[in-house]
Amino acid sequence: MTPLRIQPQPGTTPDVVQKIDTLNRKLGSFIHAPLNLKEVLRMEPFAADGEVVRAVAAALDDYAILPASPEERERQCTTGLPKDYDIVGFWYCVALLALSAEPEAVRYLLVLARM
Known about the structure:
Elements: H1 14-29, H2 37-40, H3 44-47, H4 50-61, H5 70-79, H6 87-98, H7 103-114
Helix pairs in contact: 4-6
């Protein structure tokens, strides 16, 4: 499995780069996806920063887990998800987006809901 890694967006301030580094370390420390509200709320400090939220949404946009076409969706139904899918990191990032009202977070969650 390849760990999901959030990359800072171009022009990101050093403060936000530090927060993203902290987020990446935190994502790497979890052993299972968030299962309850207490675990989801672990992402609250990161969800409060719009730049971090936008970086997470951009990372998930590039994360090849959501099928891009009906054919790809059908293939995933028969063959399963990619073997390098970081299920823990992905769902903690989704939890982070769910805690934010940033337009990019809402956009990504709507895409996810339609899959």
